Amino acid sequence: HHHQPFIKPMQSPPSVSPGIQRRHTLPASEVRPLNTQDATSVFEIEREAFISVSGDCPLHLDEVRHFLTLCPEFSMGWFEEGRLVAFIIGSLWDKDRLSAEALTLHKPRGSTVHIHVLAVHRTFRQQGKGPILMWRYLQYLRCLPSVRRAVLMCEDVLIPFYQKSGFKVLGRCAITVANLTFTEMWYPISGHAYMRRNSEAIRFPQQPLSLPLAKTEENDDV
């Protein structure tokens, strides 16, 4: 049962009811893992969100491509009408705390997900999309049996933002970038909680859940 995309009356001739005429557009709202073809869109958002403010950004274009090649399953993008509006890029790490190596390495046997970046396109900010995408991402990580925790480093001004998503302060991060210092935060993920995911799954309108290991449709009571 697909919902019809919202159609403004002006877009269909008066003789055709909106329920019948369906525009052949991309899904209104879709969440999916990123791939290397999304790298440019990712970097455009980073450039505006970070570089214009501090002169640098969490992942440069080659690093975006690097992680989307090595571990696309730890990325998540939110698309509206096919356009990237928010994203998270992560990789696996195998130590308790982050070090400079964690900025560029993916450790496939690690049980910690290092969230490198969460960013929202400027025209879609102040809509709660960042926290919703983070919630979706953490829900997805709970479906991966090997993942035990998520960690990130952020500037102190962002601590309350991530606390609202359930992250707790670990302490001062050992990594410094230019003259910036960061706080390290973590979120516990029990790898065995995936049995609960059916009751907790969220739906976006008109959006097939295309994430790997996500819940199936058959026990969906929508």
UniProtKB/TrEMBL annotation:
Its main location: cytoplasm. Residues 1-21 are annotated as: Disordered. Residues 29-200 form the N-acetyltransferase domain. Its EC number is 2.3.1.87. GO terms for biological process: circadian rhythm; melatonin biosynthetic process; response to light stimulus. Belongs to the acetyltransferase family. AANAT subfamily. This is Serotonin N-acetyltransferase. GO terms for molecular function: aralkylamine N-acetyltransferase activity. SUPFAM superfamilies: Acyl-CoA N-acyltransferases (Nat). It is found in: Cytoplasm. Gene3D superfamilies: 3.40.630.30. Pathway: Aromatic compound metabolism; melatonin biosynthesis; melatonin from serotonin: step 1/2.
